[in-house]
Amino acid sequence: MNGRDDVFVRSLATRGAHGAVSMAVRNAVRILEGSGSFDTIIIETAGAGQTEIAVAGLADTVVLVTVPGLGDAVQAIKAGLMEVADLVVVNMADRPGAPETVRHLRFAMQRKLTVMQTVALRGAGVPELTDELNRRWRTLRATGELLVVREDKRLDEVAAVAEQWVRRCAVGGVGRRTGSLRSMVKEVLKEASAQWKA
Question: Which residues pair with 183 in a beta bridge?
Answer without folding.
Answer: none
